[in-house]
């Protein structure tokens, strides 16, 4: 961006210091560059009008064209209002104003034709529109674009007469000045290949489209550019990292072969095999691996982790598997120990509750290299834990660990940064993964082991609770165990706590013959673990809990998941919770309990859960419902501050722009070729802008 775009907005005709301050504080618009990128959030189609007779209350904002038949001031003083009757060939519509009454009265002329934009509502069983936008047809200039931009603004700005229209006027002014200054930011080869219009033409047409074709072309071009630069940045980070970080080379696999041939009690799924190949390939390159493994709950990530750890062992290195909770670490350890024993590999477990005397032994075994595999919690991060040669770190359930913690693991091998495999059961749609983890390689297990029974999911209203209790009783008689989960948005919310307690008591009353565990966030970790363990050991039949049980817990005998106030959970979270059942051979069930009062969006979530068990499909729908900002684990990610592209909708453009970025970096990693000069410059100006931003906010 040239210096022109760094000009402060107050220098623009029609702005001045007061409005400039407002635009800064209200919309974070400081410079010409900020302003020109304040894209319209929607457009009024000047060619589309509703007939008055076709209006009804269910419609959103609509546009009507008609003549003013009458206008009249009604009421007194503060209750005064202006009532105007607009007429077209099909009927009449009342327009009302409660504010700016006098002004509007002089503006609107009887007998003239107007275009009116507003939301039809019913008042006193008559259709009307309150405070619509109006414009005299005679004043709409021929050259005025047929798609009229509508800009985001705020109440405060509007009070200072900076409404959408005013922003439009300012924008027109700016565009006139800016046109000769707008530089092309994409290489000609790309413009040519994707038949994209120039940046200058795109900027003009995103604000004031001259035709629908040009408008679409402008949108495509600007979205492409935005995503292209995000991807370029991520891909360059990745290349830099790969070039810099050497990793140990692991190629030998004797123990793995023995394990595979003699001890693995089931066939790996094709997806597991593919992922293992991807990991093995990474480990042999001499570069440090940084891989994200996504797999739905129950897809069998643990065995993949174990196999990766065997590869490390086979090449004289050690491996650690870090879980977010003690109970998960326990489960991993209990599951893997028998395998390790058969293979003659020393495996250990280190958590917060490991006894001091045991710790000493563990520390020694790790430092001497005698122990090959260690499973644990954050306790692994402590400085006293030293390895002879840590070669591979596996992190289960990635979003519970921060970047800082991950880097602590890295420091445990001064010679080679360990290879890293991050495992998550939170399925992230591919488009999002590409953007969020563009700097990681992504592997996906998209297949469940054969013979798994689909979990049957149903939605029941609270009024059917007695029947649900009856079903629970049947299942317990069959020997199964049951989870009942209550929402807990904030662990401190006393109301949620009360819900949980009330629930616990009513379950106790309903099932006096059975034993019940309860786990929630206010409990001490030891107490929580103790209660969990009772359930794991089948000493209790029912587990009443908050979402603390969400992550990874494996109780194959638990076959029923009841989610209370299910409408209060996000879709991905519901899916995570459901994944706690369906881990054994028995048919499992998930029952979503709600009241009758459901929002439209809650209904979509519940229907989706009932319809599908596919985590990726669910993640996609979740993304569409909520937008990327709310998805698990994405909150801190700055890459999602997109101005025009939409990750939920622009998957195809994202893919194309990523491929384009990849291709360019392959040919010209340093962006040194003359035809890529403008890319390089644009990156620099983007970076300059980022610095600005961080200084301001
Ligand atoms: P997750 O991906 O949720 O961590 P786990 O690794 O805990 O899943 O696996 C769930 C269960 O499936 C475990 O009991 C595991 O032994 C079993 N499992 C894993 N892979 C297979 C397979 N290919 N065939 C049959 N069972 C498998
Ligand atoms: Mg797991």
TrEMBL record:
Name the UniProt record assigns to this protein: ATP-dependent DNA helicase RecG
Record keywords, A-Z: ATP-binding, DNA damage, DNA recombination, DNA repair, DNA-binding, Helicase, Hydrolase, Isomerase, Nucleotide-binding
Annotated Helicase ATP-binding domain residues: 282-445
Boundaries of every Helicase C-terminal domain copy: 470-629
Pfam families: DEAD, Helicase_C, RecG_dom3_C, RecG_wedge
Entry's Gene Ontology molecular function annotations: 3'-5' DNA helicase activity; ATP binding; ATP hydrolysis activity; DNA binding
InterPro entries assigned: ATP-dep_DNA_helicase_RecG, DEAD/DEAH_box_helicase_dom, Helicase_ATP-bd, Helicase_C-like, NA-bd_OB-fold, P-loop_NTPase, RecG/Mfd, RecG_dom3_C
SUPFAM superfamilies named among the record's database cross-references: Nucleic acid-binding proteins, P-loop containing nucleoside triphosphate hydrolases
Lineage: superkingdom: Bacteria
Enzyme class: isomerase
EC number: 5.6.2.4
Protein's organism: Adhaeribacter pallidiroseus
Catalytic activity: ATP + H2O = ADP + phosphate + H(+); Couples ATP hydrolysis with the unwinding of duplex DNA by translocating in the 3'-5' direction
Job description of the protein: Plays a critical role in recombination and DNA repair. Helps process Holliday junction intermediates to mature products by catalyzing branch migration. Has replication fork regression activity, unwinds stalled or blocked replication forks to make a HJ that can be resolved. Has a DNA unwinding activity characteristic of a DNA helicase with 3'-5' polarity.
PROSITE patterns: HELICASE_ATP_BIND_1, HELICASE_CTER
